[in-house]
Amino acid sequence: MDKSKRPVLKSKRSFRRRLPPIGSGDRIDYRNMSLISRFISEQGKILSKRVNRLTLKQQRLITIAIKQARILSLLPFLNNEKQFERTESTPRTTGPRTRN
């Protein structure tokens, strides 16, 4: 059999299609905290559309819902506990300073 008569075999990669993160019954709303919290990083940042695997319309609605929840104090603007912890520092002097 010569090369021109060979059947062309395409490599069929089996891949598992990932399910969309938002189902058809899920409502994108600022009160739906279980849904909104999936699209926020550990630091409190909104994850990108590419990371979330959302459509442009869904990403816009998620962003609006997150911002509304932040304004209504349902979500923190920053989720950084280390920012408020005090590290060991030198003690301050409370008395009047004296010159030597």
Explain this structure to me?
The chain has 100 residues and is mostly helical. The protein is built from 3 helices and no strands. It is elongated and about 100 Å long. The relative contact order is 0.14. GO terms for molecular function: small ribosomal subunit rRNA binding; structural constituent of ribosome.
The level 1 CATH classification of one domain is Few Secondary Structures
Counting DSSP E segments of at least 2 residues, the number of strands comes to 0
Low-confidence stretches: none
- Global morphology: elongated
In the CATH hierarchy, the third-tier topology of one domain is known as: 30s Ribosomal Protein S18
Task: Give the name of the CATH superfamily of one domain.
Answer: Ribosomal protein S18
**Into which percentage range does the β-strand content fall?**
under 5%
Radius of gyration of CA atoms, rounded to a whole number: 27 Å
The biggest beta sheet is recorded as: none
Sequence of secondary-structure elements = HHH
What do the pLDDT scores average to?
A: 80
Classify the oligomer.
single chain
Overall helicity? 10-25%
Shape-level CATH architecture of one domain: Irregular
Q: Which class best fits the helix and strand makeup?
A: mainly alpha
SS summary, helix count: 3
For the termini, the CA-CA separation is: 103 Å
